[in-house]
Amino acid sequence: MTQRLTIRRPDDWHVHLRDGAMLEAVAGYTARQFARAIVMPNLTPPVTSVAAARDYRARILAALGEGARFEPLMTCYLTDQADPDTIAAGHEEGVFTACKLYPAHATTNSAHGVTDIAAIAPVLERMQRIGMPLLIHGEVTDRSIDIFDREAVFLDRVLTPLIRDFPALRIVLEHITTAEAAVFVAEAAHPIAATITPQHLIINRNAIFDGGLRPHAYCLPVAKREAHRLAVRRAAVSGSPRFFLGTDSAPHVVGAKESACGCAGIFNAPFALETYLRVFDEEDAIDRFEGFASEHGARFYGLPLNPGTITLERVPVTVPATTGEGATAVVPFLAGETLAWRLAG
Ligand code: DOR
Ligand code: ZN
């Protein structure tokens, strides 16, 4: 049995680092494991300008302190008012790596999101021309659609016309949760890829209702039934360069989760790599872990692979019940469970 695994330093292609005290509390978990991360822009207010992204990047680096070997890759939150020239200039300057499309009201802090793709057609046109990736929260917001169907319906109603109208637009469908999305991404004749979270590889929707309401298993897109979890697992370990690591780690203070209207989001950053490796190990696919964690994403984004390596060792580690305290107390994913692998050193 493999006891140690050394891979090229990985990246997290989708993370929420938050701001203020929470940023200070959580940024280190991501930076400890990952060389780079695509940082989500859904702050309050959202990151819509080059100046805001530059400032946010500086706050992330300040939170990590001197000597951190971590590069935050910033994203622009698209609104109906998004301006192609601003976005292209931010990309050219190296501030905006990508743009994030939240359908308005799809999830946490998405009230300013896009109400109609037609409103951002000039932006998408320009992104397509300059090769700037579009990152999509792929759920319809139509409340008449069952919440468990919102991703699959998005593929038909929004994504299919989108790739028809912008045939060269590079797209990352974020945090896929369904068999339909896995097949769509694997088979599309289009430059499209998908990120996959640890939670969608490990839990199905039963976890949200396991003996009572479990707010810490609730995120968006919500976990689906078992057949979908298995399809997403197959995609992750398939070796296809279209699937790569994106944790969607989304911390909320414990009181905001354990509430009459608990926030969506699972905080998986502290043991993200260990959790993914558990899945690859269970699937007998450890040899495909490096591609998923450290290569496919960088290649899709057209960025260099990271120099250097990290090592994981088969030594048990128990996830704590909480991390942080007070305004930064968060219950991590798999709290109290023991994982077989841990990051060495
Ligand atoms: O569960 C989620 N939490 N899904 C999202 O899309 C946003 C995120 C957050 O920011 O909390
Ligand atoms: Zn997210």
From TrEMBL:
Q: How is the cofactor bound?
A: Binds 2 Zn(2+) ions per subunit.
Which example biological process does GO assign this protein? 'de novo' pyrimidine nucleobase biosynthetic process
Which residues carry out catalysis? D248
**Protein's UniProt keywords contain Zinc:** yes
Q: Name one GO molecular function term.
A: zinc ion binding
Please give the catalytic activity noted in the UniProt record. Answer: (S)-dihydroorotate + H2O = N-carbamoyl-L-aspartate + H(+)
Supply the PROSITE patterns for this chain. DIHYDROOROTASE_1 (PS00482), DIHYDROOROTASE_2 (PS00483)
Pathway listed for it is: Pyrimidine metabolism; UMP biosynthesis via de novo pathway; (S)-dihydroorotate from bicarbonate: step 3/3
For this protein, the record's InterPro entries field holds: Amidohydro-rel, DHOdimr, Dihydroorotase_CS, Metal_Hydrolase
The alphabetical list of record keywords is:
Hydrolase, Metal-binding, Pyrimidine biosynthesis, Zinc
What EC class is this?
hydrolase
Name the residues that bind Zn(2+) 2: K100, H137, H175
Q: Which GO terms describe its cellular component?
A: cytosol
- What highest taxon heads this organism's lineage? Bacteria
Its cofactor is:
Zn(2+)
Kindly list the positions annotated as binding Zn(2+) 1. Answer: H14, H16, K100, D248
Positions of the Amidohydrolase-related domain: 12-311
Binding, substrate? H16, L17, R18, N42, H137, L220, H252, A264
* Catalytic activity, EC: 3.5.2.3
Q: NCBIfam families attached here?
A: pyrC_dimer
Q: Partners and quaternary state?
A: Homodimer.
Q: Which family does it belong to?
A: Belongs to the metallo-dependent hydrolases superfamily. DHOase family. Class II DHOase subfamily.
Which function does this protein serve? Catalyzes the reversible cyclization of carbamoyl aspartate to dihydroorotate.
Its recorded name reads: Dihydroorotase
Q: What organism does the record attribute this protein to?
A: Sphingomonas metalli
